């Protein structure tokens, strides 16, 4: 792929971005802060690559997520029905503020901390299943079933329905070009399932996140109305009587399932691979598993689950790194490039579990910071701890070059991770 000056057109070789994105992003970052590229949809976009610019842009209220701010004939994106499209990834204040606040009432630190022991039990059970075999594909047997089980437990989805969940999300995460209708069918199935699940929970509430979200949607907030009034970033007043619409509730369940599953699989898989290919760091973590929190932050920085933030659309012409980006055009923020910017992180292409990786952008920054980040971090910490506890001789079972990645610019995740122990 040719490198050219900032703001001038660049075409990507998609294979290069899937197999070796960090080399491509490094080249772009060095060549200039902003690049005009052709996205995977064939439409032009602006790619921002340097840490300071990406961090600033993530928190810039002039960069909207609502795709109605896209230029006519520009960004299209995934066509979802309204009941799945009314989610936080398509919203700006004041709607984003209202929904985020309501869901955070249900997604409390206490509720997440209560999951610690159950998550460790799930991890241990999965490892019990694979232990006798001596080798396994760690994605299929561990990194994927762990978060799907956690999210389904959190939402209150019955075990019998979980395999369907996995096939639906896989159909959306990695669409099969040979079966173009599969993604659409998966969306229809999910919509029907979520609608029925919400109806069931409304009639028979339980101690789970979905029941708590339905309560937040249905309860009248008169009693705390006077406490809840405040202004969001746009200056609009956000009051205590705000509720989720039914579409917003269904969309939120969809987002929690989809993001909670996809990001965590990739975080666990990528972190494990990074450790297995850096034996000194693996040994250092084994020697002191109390470092796992800092290690997960560094591993997320090094090879996070999302190379790009959710696309944004300038509400007015903006200037980044001396390049003017017109209102309504598609802006892509490279989290992967920012997290390996040597201006921010010394020797960024090496894993160092003792590094202070505070400020990494793997899970976003600003008002759109990943709502499930504390849960994803905790799952990954537990997954790594349980794995290293159980298998002192864990090693890759294929050469690193033989590993295959999901064919996506937006998700950085392994299709399989064969290991022996």
Task: Write out key terms for the chains shown.
48% helix, 421 residues, alpha+beta, 4-stranded mixed beta sheet
Total strand segments: 13
Q: Uncertain runs with pLDDT below 50, 5 residues or more?
A: 1-5, 220-241
Compute the separation of the termini in Å. 39 Å
Rg: 21 Å
Measured by DSSP, the beta-strand proportion falls in 5-15%
Major sheet size, sense and barrel closure: 4 strands, mixed
Percent range of helical residues: 40-55%
Mean pLDDT: 87
Task: State the strand order across the main sheet.
Answer: 1-2-3-11
Q: Count the helices. How many?
A: 18
What does this structure look like?
This protein has 18 helices and 13 strands. The protein has 421 residues and is α+β, with helices and mostly antiparallel strands. The strands form 5 sheets. The protein has a 4-stranded mixed beta sheet with strand order 1-2-3-11, with helices on one face. Strand 2 and strand 3 form a beta hairpin. Helix 7 (116-130) packs across helix 18.
